[in-house]
Write a structure and sequence with these properties.
The complex is a heterodimer of chains A (378) and B (274). With 378 residues, chain A is of the alpha/beta class. Helices cover 68% and strands 8% of the residues of chain A. In chain A, helix 1 links the parallel strand 2 and strand 3. In chain A, helix 6 runs parallel beside helix 9 and helix 9 packs across helix 11. Chain B is α/β, with parallel strands linked by helices and 274 residues long. Chain B has a 6-stranded mixed beta sheet with strand order 6-7-8-3-9-10, sandwiched between helices. In chain B, strands 2-1-4-5 form a 4-stranded antiparallel beta sheet, covered by helices on one side. Chain B starts with 13 loop residues before the first strand and ends in a 20-residue tail after the last helix. In chain B, 43% of the residues are buried. The chains are: A alpha/beta (378), B alpha/beta (274). The interface between A and B is medium-sized, with 35 and 35 residues.
């Protein structure tokens, strides 16, 4: 590379008596040097000339940024109606500059987004909510239909996928469920014991913990963990498949995505959640027993109290809820995955929606069950 | 085709030197002990069958993969061993267009293309905007700046990726399958752009492609890789290779349609009588 190619970029100016401004450029105009020259040029052009002459004889190199500088002068001349004459530019650079025609180059900014107002926004929101409800109802109907068909003809279920999902959502979650269940029972028993000690009834910590865990908190805790762990995973998996056109591929092969992808996942979650809830209950009771022993009571007192308060009805009420929670978490995770739109953040949005919807559904269902059990006297 | 560019490069004006390069994954060797050079302003096309290691070689040359052995000198600096500021300085000399486009999906096309200008230069906002508009114009995407990548077709995304790769006018542009998925007219425009940048700005190109029309339009030199030998089996001007090769793979590559006789081609189906 010749030495003159390495010369720093400069710009000078000269004003003729007839109002013609001459800008003299020299050196290397590349993306690193053009910024300063661009600002100087803007400063030199703060007063509009009658005519502009650009002398580029000493410009040794000019990349896209330098070409953009000369082109911007042409655009400025066109916009402000003064002639611009670029002289002595090397032929290689002229050929780059001539690729752009100032008179046809559209520099208008993009159209601003349409103005919106509160009623419009509320209308959009209501429409989205209505669409979402419609899609959920349609999805529930389709899923129920496939479940019924599977009940009549179990061969239609993809059993390999089902067992894989049971392993992923159930067996692989044993550790976390056991740990959190244990800690939950420990905390619950400890908090209860501190308050009950004041009244001298700390022995009833066993009753309190057992009923709270088995009837409400065990299935609830399990369902929340499933929503965060399994629902999100379903949404991300199906969302990625949708973005990669895998769902479309299934549809074009005549295979129903609900039967092929959703059914094994939902059935697996429905089966596994009550089993995990039992594990959470047992771990929680172990945690509560540790606190009970720490308070100086023998283990046999704990087991006697638990056996006395836990009836089959209470056990069954917790497990029924767990089955429903599992169904909801699996279904909403798959639905949010299938609703994934385009774009890099779409899978993230679907995952978030799966977890949030899952937790909301769990809490609402818990409330409904509480009312039902109250009237049933359970 | 000898490039007539700004600097009139001499044969010794080597910009990229690959020396005794061996690349692979885990136990598998993909390319073994290959060496070649790329001159400043040259357009080098890497050819070869599917799975022969073209894209792997490209990713080694841009420093994404670590080779098993060998050196890759870019303007005298070894990108394989370069660290910190030296590596950053090397990376500023190159622009890369990936096979998938690899546009940032959360940014509009304009933001994608402007990113490097914002990070590396002190250009005023209006200057950067004009440069971005010009680059998008060059790849036929003028007026699409506010679109998000997801709103564009694959070919348009690819063209936007080329605009992003060349926004800083790097010394070397690495293009992985630039014409794949483009219509013939756009592919032709892209070839013309590559030639113009090579000849007028002495920009050096290393291109991986299967598109023979593009190869003949832009390549000063091709190197052909063989999957089984794991080596370069031919190098030279594509026109000369087409005429004078005795290597079966190279012959097959350049004469792929000539083996199909007219009799074997589909004859038009007569419409059924009504």
């Amino acid at each position: 590379m010749a030495d003159r190619d390495k010369q720093p970029a400069t710009v000078g100016s000269k004003t003729e008596s007839d109002g013609c401004l001459i800008l003299i450029y020299s050196g290397r105009l590349d993306c690193l040097t053009t910024g300063a020259i661009w600002r100087k040029t803007s400063h030199l052009l703060h007063r509009q000339p009658k005519r502009l002459v650009v002398d580029a004889a000493e410009v040794s190199y000019c990349d896209g940024s330098g070409i953009a500088l000369f082109f911007s002068l042409r655009l400025r001349g066109l916009r402000n109606q003064f002639p611009v004459d670029i002289q002595n530019l090397r032929p290689e650079m002229v050929s780059l500059l001539e690729r752009f025609q100032a008179d046809t180059f559209d520099l208008r900014p993009p159209a601003p987004p349409p103005q919106t107002n509160v009623p419009t926004e509320v209308g959009h929101w209501a429409w989205h909510v209505w669409q979402d409800i419609f899609e959920q109802v349609a999805f529930i109907g389709e899923l129920a239909s496939w479940m019924f068909k599977t009940l009549i003809r179990p061969v239609g279920l993809r059993w390999n996928d089902f067992f894989l999902m049971v392993e992923r959502t159930g067996a692989n979650a044993i550790g976390i469920i056991a740990l959190l269940g244990f800690l939950f029972g420990l905390i619950l028993a400890f908090s209860g014991a501190i308050s009950m000690q004041k009244f001298g009834v700390e022995v009833y910590v066993a009753d309190l913990t057992a009923i709270a865990l088995i009837r409400v908190l065990g299935p609830f805790l399990t369902a929340i963990i499933m929503a965060g762990r399994t629902g999100s995973s379903y949404a991300a998996e199906l969302g990625t498949m949708k973005i990669n056109n895998e769902i479309d591929a299934l549809a074009t092969m005549g295979l129903d995505p609900v039967r092929f992808l959703v059914l094994p996942r939902v059935l697996a979650t429905t089966l596994v959640t009550p089993l995990l809830a039992v594990l959470a209950n047992l771990s929680g009771l172990v945690g509560a027993a540790v606190v009970f022993l720490w308070m100086g009571f023998p283990l046999v007192t704990f087991t006697t109290h638990v056996q006395r308060v836990i009836t089959i009805q209470i056990l069954a009420s917790g497990l029924v809820k767990a089955v429903v929670f599992g169904l909801l978490v699996g279904a909403v995770g798959c639905l949010r995955g299938l609703q994934t739109e385009l774009g890099p953040s779409a899978v993230g949005i679907s995952t978030t929606r799966a977890v949030v919807s899952g937790i909301v559904l769990i809490v609402v269902t818990e409330g409904i069950f509480s009312v039902i059990y109250y009237y049933l006297g359970i | 085709m000898v490039p007539h560019n700004l600097y009139s490069p001499s044969p010794s004006d080597t910009l990229i030197r690959v020396e005794h390069l061996t690349v692979g994954f885990d136990q598998e060797i993909v390319l073994q002990d290959i060496s070649f050079e790329v001159q400043r302003g040259e357009v080098l096309v890497i050819l070869g069958g599917s799975g022969c290691g073209k894209s792997t070689l490209l990713k080694n040359m841009i420093g994404l993969y670590q080779p098993r052995q060998g050196r890759i000198l870019i303007d005298g600096d070894d990108i394989v061993r370069a660290q910190g500021l030296t590596r950053k300085a090397i990376l500023r000399k190159i622009g890369v267009m990936f096979q998938s486009g690899a546009l940032f999906g959360s940014m509009s096309l304009r933001e994608n293309v402007r990113l490097a200008l914002e990070e590396y230069t002190n250009l005023p906002r209006d200057a950067a905007d004009l440069i971005v508009s010009m680059k998008l114009y060059q790849v036929g995407l003028h007026g699409y700046g506010s679109k998000m990548p997801a709103e564009l077709s694959g070919g348009m995304q690819k063209r936007a990726a080329i605009a992003r790769a060349m926004v800083m006018d790097p010394q070397i542009l690495f293009l992985d399958e630039p014409s794949a998925g483009l219509d013939p007219i756009t592919a032709g425009d892209l070839d013309e752009l590559i030639l113009s940048l090579s000849q007028n700005l002495a920009m050096t190109f290393v291109i991986v492609t299967h598109e023979l029309p593009s190869v003949f339009a832009v390549a000063d030199r091709v190197i052909m890789l063989d999957k089984h030998l794991k080596k370069i089996v031919a190098t030279g001007n594509p026109w000369e290779l087409r005429q004078n090769t005795d290597h079966p793979l190279v012959y097959q590559f350049f004469h792929r349609n000539e083996g199909i006789s007219h009799k074997k081609r589909r004859t038009p189906v007569n419409p059924l009588p009504l």
